[in-house]
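Data availability (excerpt). All sequences and predicted token strings are deposited with the supplementary files. A representative entry, Thiol-disulfide isomerase or thioredoxin, is shown inline so that the format can be inspected without opening the archive.
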Amino acid sequence: MAILLPLLIYSQQPSLRSLTIGDEVPDIRLSNILNYPVSNIQLSSLKNKPVILDFFGTWCGSCIAALPHLDSLQRKFDTSVQILVVCYEPTAKIRAFLKENPKAKGLKLPFVTADSILSNWFPHRAFPHEVWIDGNRKVSAITEARHVNEANLRKWFSGIALSLPFKYEQMKFDAGRSFFERGNGEIPPKFLFQSALSGYMTAIGGRTQGESKGIYPGTTRYYYLNYSVLALYRRVIEDRLPGNRIILEVQDSARFVLPADAKQRTDWQQKNLYCYEVTAPDLTPKSQLMQQMLSDLNNNLHLNGRIEQKRVKCRILIRNEKVQVANSGLPAESHVSKNGFSLRNKPVRTLLSHLNNWNIQERIPPIVLDETNYKGNIDLALQISDIRDLQALRAALQPFGLDMTEEERLVEVLVLTEKTP
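Structure token line:
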């Protein structure tokens, strides 16, 4: 079945180019509109009403989370603004999403589906992406979703000039080339070795890592984009130690640990995420590159990270002698959820890996050691909201023939301290 696409209507067709703040938007005709009295509208039919285009994807968790907030704003300022959710996905898929997703049910927001025009006028890489168009069809702002709030809308309606942060995105970014090149398209002098560190890069979007051939023949590179300090140090030790073997001996851990309050996370990420890249000849051992990375992080983040033996409090996984260890012998599998995981016919080391990496991006989980002396595979299902709750964890383990104590052990860890000025 053919998918109808939005049509662009204007008297004289100009060459298609991306629009930015201050530009006038052509009188676009929008088709395939769901959740609206009619399925097609002309932009001018909104009769000088300001419009916010919310570019959206059903796979984007942040987009979905923003829907109730945008809907409440639409209801509150119904006669003053029109918020349009713009989707490139097919109409049938969006119709199913509106019917099935709990956050989408009962929305007042219209959805422009199967879009191929608006996304060309306003190109972007990261969702959600907000375009503010005033009553004269001029672009007032291009922002992140967090800037669409009641206070900013009231300023906009009253005629106060918006001075919101521009959501800049480098549309020509090529993941196959160094992202430290100016414009990501200029060829620098050939190099045999290079390492670089930068702050948060908005245009790149979420956390990305990779290992690939370098820009020039005979080189290899490792890159980590928009990583926290702890996540970068974990990459340094990942071939030697579990990711939770990091001891923070710092005055203030707020720089290192993601805030529990979701509202504070965007600002925290922009201040505390970094991008790192190292390139070296092909035959350079990874261990040598990770040692270089450790040196770069220590020197440029004013930290002293080093691996040492340290006596620390650990969780000790032991046998619960009152219950036989469960093992169904069925085909091996594992499932992970937000508040736990289940294992079937898996070795104890798999359980240990899950425990040592539980929500590791948001906090440093306790160090867990295996002293069960159990060599077989196990079945279990753990549902627990907080890995730090030892009593709850013990209660969850005991029915499966396992238990846990807390004792000091001499273990190898990465210790992070701050350098004095």
